Amino acid sequence: MKIYFSGSIRGGRIDADLYRDLITELKKYGQVLTEHVGSSALKEELSDREIHDRDIQWLHEADIVIAEVTTPSLGVGYEIAKAISFEKPVYCLYRENEETRVSAMIKGSPKVTCHSYNKFPEAREILCHIFGIRTRQ
Fold it and tell me: Is Hydrolase one of the keywords (predicted)?
């Protein structure tokens, strides 16, 4: 299974360590096409156009999209919308807090399944459930 993981890069890297942990967990279920999202030392050697085109290709290849949407990001929202247009299953994970709220365009979409969690162990359980369902279909 090919997994596209989406998390904030230019919108803020406060959750980079969490992304790394989620990616490590996702690798139990398949190939994560976007491992770089969890890196604490991101280097952008590609042009914006090259990044866009590469990521769109990965979205086409992906069997599923998992997005961590606690940190608002235009890029993550764009990737989710493209994944929906490509008819990919999209699952969003987020932590509830008073400072940020997940966009209604994400939580309100009938094409996106959202799960809230507090700590990483809960996120791990959510992923286990998601992939348990995906493998039974």
Answer: yes
- 40 marked as part of a ligand binding site: no
Per-residue pLDDT tens digits for 29-70: 999 999 988 777 767 788 999 999 999 999 999 999 999 999
105 marked ligand binding residue? yes
pTM above 0.70, yes or no: yes
Q: Please report, as a single letter, which amino acid is at residue 51.
A: I
Is 4 annotated as ligand-binding? Answer: yes
Total number of domains in the chain: 1
> Is 104 annotated as ligand-binding?
yes
β-bridge mates for residue 92, sequence order: 67, 114
Please report the pLDDT score of residue 32 as a whole number: 97
What's the CATH code of the domain at 24?
Answer: 3.40.50.450
Stretch (H or E) spanning 6: strand 2-6
1 among annotated binding-site residues = no
Ligand-binding annotation for 87, yes or no, is no
Question: Residue 37 gets which letter from DSSP?
Answer: G
- In a 13 Å sphere around the CA of 90, the CA atoms on its Cβ side amount to 27
Min mean pLDDT across 13-17, 25-29, 76-80, 115-119 is at 13-17
Residue 54 marked in a binding site: no
Query: Is 116 annotated as ligand-binding?
Result: no
